[in-house]
Design goal:
The structure is a single chain. Helix 15 packs parallel to helix 18 (691-704), helix 20 runs parallel beside helix 23 (761-767) and helix 21 (733-747) runs antiparallel to helix 23 (761-767). By secondary structure, this protein is α+β, with helices and mostly antiparallel strands. It is elongated. 54% of the residues lie in helices and 12% in strands. The longest helix is centred in the middle third of the chain and has 91 residues, at 506-596. It starts with 14 loop residues before the first strand and ends with a helix. The structure holds adenosine-5'-diphosphate (ADP) and magnesium ion. Residues 65-66, 68, 142, 144-150, 257, 312, 379 line the site of adenosine-5'-diphosphate (ADP).
């Protein structure tokens, strides 16, 4: 996958005055309109973690200082050395009375430009971008006394209209953030003679730059960081920093013009709407269970705004620094000249950028050729006495305009806050468990007491009943004894009568028998009563045993509860370990994406259209495996592919993302296709209702479409029709970008040309330009260039006759309209496409009719790439039809 670098500038060539200029073409639509600033718009309001890096050129404005009192007096008889044409964004530099040179800038600010306007065009777009999560740099370059500090650092306490960029930027930042969730903190530093001094704590005067060996990010851990909550405290900090700067410079016996001042503003924002965490832990019927949905931690965006007031750019000998030794003089200028060298190297596409040569260039690594949005204001004075310095300042600005950065979002997962939430959840559960335990203990106590009470009651009742009964029978017994004694006495008193009566009468016998009978019955009923009471006692004993059993049962339940609590705590510990692993994995992914230099889900695909400026070596084979690769090994491709057909929409989205990630690695592509992954992805394009799924599937197909065998398979399975359908339904520019990328890859296959066109591939490509997004346009242009190249090759080998299919399908008007597109990448593809089309006489008539001849002439004259310029020239001079038309119109090549 060779993403070739392309760093052509948009409008940086100095033009001799009076030379006619061909029209600049459209394509301005992609630029931010809200704040009429210098920067292209970010790729979307809420970029997700799969949004890619966007190419963005360093934007440069020039600002002219009004004449000062000295110049008004001394230069009164001379005109200014520059003339500004702000409406044309041009600056004319007078060489002498007869000659001048014209330069174009992104913005030309006259001596009347207000501080507010300067802020709005130079810094506001960068500040807005920082608030969206991108890094940003605003920098002033120019000779001492031309207004760098005036532009950046003016506090404007007496006159609010005079407030400079630092103060206005903080006002905008504080107005936009949410104090409850977001934080803003600043450091303020000075760089002098390769030493970094903390302007908020000047004793700290040799702060080290620390570079993360894996990501390459630089930081200054030794610098004071102050959290800013309101504008007043920020202005106070700036005032303190400025006072320290003056004091330090007096001590070092220098002027502030020799040192660089850097204000670093760190913004940390919670990404609202993307921080839901689904952790539900429920307890039912005393049985607790835990269900952990997805552990999705909240996302935070961390961005940094760096405002740099550079040292005066004049040569040291000119501004009278006799006090310095040669060594000091070298050191003073080292950082600034290293910055110049880096910008030259970047502007010229040189493979080596000497970033490590100075501290300034190490600190600004991200601002030039890095991932930040960068705006530079070059300040100049009007005096012809400083023409030399002014010229070199302008040339610096012109070179900086050629530098392109790849801006990208800096967002990460907020594991700390997820951990906090889990802790709170755990505490809630512990409290709930404690409450339940207490409830059970109370219940057991209550039931035990009740049972004891009942047993006591029953025992008491039995005892009284027994005693009553006993007393009753005792009394009856005593009574009957008494009766018998009396009778006995009666016998003794009358012996005769008794003798007479020794033979008892039948009456007396009957009486005794009755008494005995009575006695028997009484004993029987006493026995019954006693049995009854015995039964009652055994019944109460049984009741007591049941109550004891219930107590045992409750104790058991309590034990189960306790062991479940233990299990639950273990589960939470596992969760925490998983969370830690997740965080390590996420860090790893982030690092590997950072190493990759593009920070996106489909690095393979994106590298077709973007390029890593840092050219850091990718650790692939030897480095640690990415979590996705681990997943691939652990879960197995078949399983992952089967998830593409899952019932759960969420699972489908995740599965297609995983497959897309795998498809981005060339090594996996064959396995994916063999396992039927390509067919499944095409199925998703056909059947999925969800645009995210279709977007990610199209991205994966685009990656697979980079190899010829897969291109044949995609065609054979009706891929072009499916991609065309997806294109016509899609609304998201990123979906269109993926689809256009896939078709563009197919366009580069010589054998598939006719079929691709027959199935509507070219029409689909041209249809996608409706969205106007530069990334989509770049893919469309690449596709057209690929197609034109294949056609041209076929015609040269005699395998093709007749007019270009591109022309037949109506591509020419769009090609002509965008041939001078502002975006270098789009322009380059279209220029190549035009050259290929014009190489064949059959196309000449259409080329003339549609006005493409003019664009070819322009390319042959102005194109900054020599090979394309020569190709256009050769094409024009070798076509008889184009030659005769040029003669007719009196155009010269
Ligand atoms: P530098 O930081 O480039 O050395 P200064 O910002 O200190 O330059 O400006 C030098 C002087 O010129 C200061 O007195 C400043 O107030 C004045 N000055 C600079 N730019 C302007 C401007 N655009 N309008 C009015 N005065 C200016
Ligand atoms: Mg200054």
């Amino acid at each position: 996958m060779s993403g070739k670098m392309d760093r052509q500038s948009v409008t940086a060539t100095p033009k001799a005055a009076g030379k006619p200029r061909l029209s600049a073409g459209g394509g301005g639509g992609a630029y931010r309109r809200t704040s009429s600033g210098l920067l292209p718009a970010a790729s979307g309001g809420r970029a997700s973690s799969d949004s890619g890096a966007v190419s963005s050129r360093v934007r440069v404005a020039v600002r002219l200082r009004p004449r000062n009192a000295d110049e008004l007096a001394v230069d009164a008889d001379f005109g200014d050395c520059v003339e500004l044409q702000p409406e044309l964004k041009r600056l004319k530099l007078r060489k002498n009375n007869w000659e001048s040179e014209t330069y174009e800038f992104d913005e030309v600010l006259t001596e009347f430009a207000s501080q507010k306007r300067v802020y709005e065009v130079v810094a506001k777009p960068v500040v807005e971008s920082v608030l969206e999560g991108y890094n940003g740099t605003v920098m002033a370059y120019g000779q001492t006394g031309t207004g760098k500090t005036f532009t950046l650092g003016k506090l404007g306490e007496e006159d609010t209209a005079a407030r400079g960029i630092m103060v206005r930027a903080m006002e905008d930042i504080l107005a936009d953030i949410t104090p409850e969730t977001d934080t803003v903190s600043v450091s303020y530093l000075q760089l002098y003679m390769e030493m970094i001094q903390d302007l908020l704590d000047p004793v700290n005067d040799n702060i080290a730059i620390v570079e993360d060996p894996r990501t390459g990010d630089v930081s200054l851990p030794g610098a004071t960081v102050v959290e800013v909550r309101d504008q007043k405290s920020f202005v106070d900090l700036l005032r303190v920093g400025e006072a320290h700067r003056v004091a330090a410079n007096t001590k070092l016996n220098t002027e502030s013009s020799r040192s660089h001042a850097l204000l670093m503003v760190n913004v940390r924002r919670a990404d609202k709407g993307r921080h839901e965490m689904d952790v539900s832990i429920s307890g039912e019927n005393g049985h607790s269970s835990s269900t952990v949905g997805s552990l999705r931690p909240p996302i935070v965006r961390k961005s940094k705004l760096v405002v740099v007031d550079l040292a005066g750019s004049e040569r040291i000998d000119k501004s009278g620094s006799e006090g310095h030794t040669l060594e000091e003089a070298k050191s003073i200028n080292l950082s600034l000249s290293a910055l110049g060298k880096c910008i030259n190297a970047l502007a010229e596409n040189s493979p080596h950028v000497p970033v490590r040569d100075s501290k300034l260039t190490r600190l600004l690594k991200d601002s030039f050729g890095g991932t930040a949005r960068t705006s530079l204001v070059v300040t100049i004075g009007p005096s012809p006495r400083h023409r030399g310095e002014t010229t070199s300042t302008i040339m610096f600005g012109q070179r900086a305009m050629k530098v392109e950065n790849m801006v990208k979002l800096k967002e990460e997962f907020d594991y700390k806050s997820l951990c906090r939430r889990l802790d709170i959840e755990l505490d809630k559960l512990i409290a709930e468990n404690e409450r339940q335990r207490k409830y059970f203990d109370d219940e057991v106590e209550r039931i035990t007491a009740e049972a004891q009470c009942r047993v006591l009651e029953a025992e008491g009742e039995c005892k009284t009943a027994l005693e009553n009964e006993k007393a009753k029978y005792h009394q009856e017994y005593l009574d009957s004894i008494k009766i018998l004694e009396e009778k006995w006495k009666l016998h003794q008193q009358s012996p005769r009568k008794q003798i007479k009566e020794t033979e008892p009468t039948s009456n007396e016998v009957g009486e005794v028998q009755n008494l005995l009978q009575n006695e028997k019955m009484l004993r029987q009923s006493a026995e019954d009563e006693a049995n009854d009471l015995k039964n009652q006692v055994s019944h109460w004993k049984k009741m007591e045993a049941a109550a004891t059993a219930e107590v045992v049962k409750l104790r058991k339940m309590l034990d189960t509860e306790a062991s479940q609590k233990e299990k639950f705590e273990e589960e939470i510990a596992v969760l925490k370990r998983q969370l830690l692993q997740l965080s390590l994995d996420a860090d790893e992914t982030r690092r590997s994406l950072d190493r990759d230099g593009s920070g996106k889900i489909f690095p393979g695909f994106d590298s077709l259209m973007s390029h890593s400026r840092n050219s850091q070596p990718r650790e692939q084979s030897n480095g640690p495996k990415t979590p996705i690769a681990k997943l691939f090994e652990q879960v197995g491709l078949q399983k992952i592919l089967s998830l593409l057909e899952s019932e759960e929409p969420d699972v489908r989205v995740h599965a297609v993302k995983v497959v897309a990630n795998l498809a981005a690695e060339e090594a996996n592509q064959e396995k994916i296709v063999e396992a039927g992954g390509l067919t499944s992805l095409l199925m998703l394009l056909r059947s999925s209702e969800d645009e995210t799924i279709r977007r990610v599937a199209a991205g994966a197909i685009a990656n697979l479409a980079m190899n010829e065998t897969n291109q044949d398979l995609i065609m054979a399975q009706g891929g072009v029709t499916l991609l065309s359908m997806t294109a016509s339904d899609a609304e998201d520019p990123q979906t269109l970008r993926m689809v256009a990328g896939a078709i563009a890859n197919l366009c580069g296959n010589d054998k598939l040309q006719t079929r691709l066109r027959g199935e509507g591939g070219i029409k689909a490509l041209l249809g996608m330009v409706r969205c106007g997004h530069p990334d989509v346009l770049a893919q469309v242009a690449r596709g057209i260039a690929n197609f034109a190249k294949c056609e041209s090759r076929a015609a040269t080998h005699g395998n093709r006759v007749g007019k270009s299919l591109l022309i037949d399908d109506g591509a020419l008007p769009w090609i002509v309209k965008n041939a001078n597109n502002e975006a270098a990448l789009i322009r380059r593809h279209i220029e190549l496409a035009l050259c290929h089309l014009a190489q064949h006489e059959v196309n000449s008539k259409d080329i003339i009719c549609e006005g493409a001849l003019w664009e070819l002439v322009r390319i042959s004259r102005d194109c900054s790439r020599e090979d394309i310029r020569m190709l256009a020239y050769r094409t024009l001079t070798s076509s008889p039809t184009l030659q005769s038309e040029m003669r007719r119109l009196r155009i010269e090549c």
